[in-house]
Amino acid sequence: MTRNPAHPRLTLAITAALATALGACSAPGESGSESKSTSGPIKIAVVNAQSGQLSSLGDWEYKGAKLAVDEWNKKGGVNGRKIELKLFDDQGDPTTGTNIARKLDSQGYIAMIGTAESAVTIAMAPVLQQAEIPNITSGQSDKLVAQKSPFLFLNGPTSTTYDTTLAKYLIEDKQHKNIAMITNNGSFGKGEHDAFLKAAKDLGVTPSTDQIVTTDQKDFSSALTKIRAEKPEVIFIGSEEVEAGLIVKQARDLGITAPFAGAAPQGTPVFMDTAGKAAVEGTIVSSPYLSNDVSPAAKKFADAYQAAYKEEAEMHGAKAYDGANILLTALDTSKGATGKKLADAIRATRHDGLLGDFAYDETGVGITQTAIGVIRDGKLVAEQ
Amino acid sequence: MKLRIGGLAAMIVVAWLLPYGLGSYAIHVVNIALIYALLAIGMGLAMGISGQINLAQVAFFGVGAYVVAILTTHNGYGFWAASALALLATVATGLFVGVPALRMQSHYLGIVTLGLALGFLNWITNATITGGADGISGIPLPTLPGIDLSSEYLYYYVELVVCVLGLAFGLFVVRTALGRRLRAMRDDSLAASAMGAQIPLLRMTAFVLASLYGGMAGILYAGLIRYVAPETFSIANMFILLAMVIIGGRRSLVGCVVGAIGLTLIREWLSDFSTYAQLGYGVVVVLMVVFAPTGLAGVPGLVRDAVRRRSRTSGGPRAELRPFTPYEVSPPPDDQATGPLLDIRAVTKDFRGLRALDDVSLSVLPGEIRGIVGPNGSGKTTLFNVVSGFYRATSGQVRLSGRDTTATRPYTLSLLGVARTFQNLRLFSHLTVRENILVALDRTRTHTIWRYVLWPPGVLRQERRLRTQAQELLDRFGLADFADTPPGSLPYGIQRRIEIARAMAARPRLLLLDEPAAGLNGEEVGQLAHMVRSIRDSGTTVVLIEHNMGLVMSLCEQVTVLAGGRVIAEGTPPEVVASPAVIEAYLGDSEMAQDAREAAPPLTATTPHLPSPSPSNSEEAAR
User: Fold this and answer.
1) φ and ψ at B372, to 5 degrees?
2) Residue A94: which CATH number?
3) Which positions 269-298 of B are in contact with A (Cβ < 8 Å)?
4) Is A379 in the B-facing interface, judged by CB distances under 8 Å?
5) Is the ipTM of this complex over 0.85?
């Protein structure tokens, strides 16, 4: 029993360790990017929440991007190569987002579409920049622009664009002086709040009241009562589809007759259905994509979407469709380039899309204007 | 031992070489896993080791990360300076979150800490300084001379060093005096305080430890991701963390680490099916709680037990209770020179409408063996609880060697030399017999835990001394064979003896024994009498409550009889038994008293007991 059983094992371990250490004298790291091959299918990732509260948004976006990729593949792909689209679930969690960003790098994805949530996109941005993977996001937060990443592109206008257009319309065209605000404290609502407040103040109007609600609130009577007391001419609303619908419905129940004005969510069917047709009459919407029949291209997209998924197209799908088309066009013109060359190609791409004419500048924003629409008889129509 | 060191060395070598075999994605996942491992160690220290349900761990994590983010981006601090301040801020938060633990325990504490975590989440979502829902980006890269931390491979080594040091410190705490007191508090906070542990301070310590690890994890997170947003610190992530600790095994820090790393890797592996995976974690947690409450860390123990149970018939030397070795006789103190050791003056104790003690006066001289008898419900255990500090007398005074101890806390009384046993055994069930003894042997004030931070060798030296003493004590009480067994698995008679050994480990001047003979057979009662006499001869004064009149008659010089909360008789055993008041108190049953008197001189196994009108544990109901 004097023989120690640990010794042979220990010696073995040390020997193995030394051997490995000698074999790898340098600091650890991945050598080169042999995975980004120049033949075979082109790998593009869609990253979006597929579980949790934002999953419907993620679903729409994936469908929009998939539609564009399918159309390109039908035409023979890019530069003779097929495009392979894979969906990743970020669970709305920034940490998971960074995991996925690393995964995209090591699995040889050359570009990413998504996410719809600014916080996740911002968390991923440094990793993607380091890995030189261009990312076309659906977020609209001005914080995205503040990242100053040459690999980050927006597939729509920023909150500032939405709200500057809206503020100009309300204050300059309509001469409104008494404007009330109600926004939520989520990422989207906060962005809307800050952008609209700044735009209005720049035009010389300070909102009469500024009400903040939470993202999971269901009863808004206290905020709305305060708004009613101010007798505003118009109420700016910064909130997602369902909550905005509830706010408008409850406002009408409280006897507020002033029209609401907001950005893209207020133009969606979900918003109109939640609030009710009568309640949303006269709502003013600032959106790059007013409806499926705003242009022939939009009609064509909406029909293809309907045919593919048996459901009505809406703005998020259209944005992702535009984003995917821009990416694929850039891939086509650059003959399947990757990394920095691909990012430059995206920046150089001029695309006449569903949302407007895309022309990217160094900030990564490709569209700097929106259209004003008004809801009449349950339909969003362009304001002349 | 050498096998373990060899295994440990191999583990370290593997951990050191790991990055050479991993891609950039895998190393990132490992980095995240290590951060969760740190969080889980903190959680394990609070929940598993100290029994403080802490659902605010994710808030500690958030405070650490956010303070670094705010100080570096808004105030221009360097990363490491900001980290030091972040650690301070997290510990302050830990103290704040720990305050409710002083007032409430178990699921109430869980709800309160969860509420505080939600409050934190709400604040970071709404405050301007935290960037609201957008979070804070652009946290600068931590710098180390000569090492480029923008490489996640090199960052891994920083995390590895912090993690290994964190785990080592955690294990050091758990296996030495502080950890034993924390675990004793988890198993039975009342008994722990009677053994000299200062419970409120220990509860705060548990939260400080948890917050320390949470803060370190937050700092590493800020340095790795360099962006913070509220979603990272959500309640959903809190429950993932909880799942890690429960699956890994909350009572073992190594188990917590295994759970954290394992679940992070599995989560990543299943990330394409996250909806179903989350359901899966829930199911696994429930299965774990039902079938393996000690988690993965407990599985080897369960297997070992099963194997041992099967092979028990095959023999081997059986563990047995060895005879008690008497203490050396110390010269009896001079009664005239010193006053009474315990002096109870006109003590009254009311529980709302019920008067449990009514004007009780009693004094016990040094070197005495005093018996306290009386029917059930007469206030005997209440009297013990007043003397040992669990209850504060409504009026009257308790004095110990002339010092007023009426309002003194149990842990202080323990350090002053009062030890007790409990009528219903209150051993620390998840500690071994040896550790039970060690808890009581540790006579230091709880605040001496500063040494863990500033002078760990002092802790080790004390530890070595305590272990020698523990072995002596185990040998003296014949318990050496059971030293490394948890007491719950031992026969009742042995557990009774462990309680007495544990009380004696505190080297008391006054030993209070609450029904030490209850449940013992005749032979064991004889051993008990022998033991109590030897304890008295060693210089410890003994007061015992007992229903076994034979034992009282043979052992005690003086007997006090309580009935209805009052002293109805006091004197030598024969005097007391003859007292008409005593006979009346025992339902006027003079025959019973007659029996007791006859049984008095020789102690026999078939000693009659005084009648017990109600179940014997009713006296302890009001604690």
Assistant:
1) -125, 120
2) 3.40.50.2300
3) 271-272, 274-275, 278
4) no
5) no
